[in-house]
Specification:
The protein has 184 residues and is an alpha/beta fold. Helices cover 32% and strands 25% of the residues. Strands 3-4-5-2-6-7-1-8 form an eight-stranded mixed beta sheet, with helices on both faces.
Length: 184
């Protein structure tokens, strides 16, 4: 099956710096596009360590993990998926790469992690010190968040020379349903 490319996916794929800050509201397609990029990266590169983190693991199971599993099924990817219902959710690839999902609702989670990629989903719900601990040893950092209000990203991260900022809207997602477009 061929990926249906959205403007959001094209824009995110064009980012080159170490840190990607991606703001987008409902229906912008940011998280889904990021997941496509991460799955493709893991499939195409051996022994890559990818962590997807968010404030609450329980919420991730209903959102980002559900989307990731949906993509895996849609493209019939030959991967091992464990811990989706309970335990630590993880996707293992035949080439030794993995994606692990971590909820930040426990003290000291993620301290000392070395990784190829850390994706901080809904970063505005995470404090800056936790973000710093998770990302200081990562080769690539991806941050997504909703445009609710300014938070530590705008002052502490967006101003860095190694950060690219991208603002998406529902107009960047051509596959959004008519009903959702109407509600937005």
């Amino acid at each position: 099956m061929k990926i249906k490319t959205t403007t959001a996916l094209k824009k995110i794929s064009s980012l080159k710096k170490r840190i990607w800050g991606i703001q987008g509201g409902q229906g912008a397609g940011k998280t889904y596009a990021i997941l496509l990029i991460l799955l493709n990266f893991a499939l195409g590169n051996s022994a890559k360590e990818i962590y997807i983190v968010s404030a609450e693991l329980s919420k991730m199971r209903d959102t980002v993990i559900k989307d990731c599993v949906s993509i895996i099924k849609e493209f019939a990817m030959d991967v091992k998926v464990t811990g989706i219902v309970s335990g630590t959710p993880r996707i293992d690839f035949e080439n030794g790469s993995f994606i692990r999902f971590i909820g930040l609702d426990k003290e000291d989670v993620g301290k000392g992690l070395r990784s190829d990629v850390v994706f901080v989903n809904e970063a505005n719900k995470t404090n800056f010190e936790t973000y710093r601990e998770l990302t200081s040893r990562a080769k690539r950092v991806i941050i997504d968040f909703n445009p609710n209000s300014k938070f530590w990203f705008h002052k502490e991260v967006q101003t860095r020379k190694d950060c690219e900022f991208l603002k998406l809207t529902y107009l960047d997602n051509e596959f959004l349903s008519k009903e959702e477009v109407y509600e937005i």
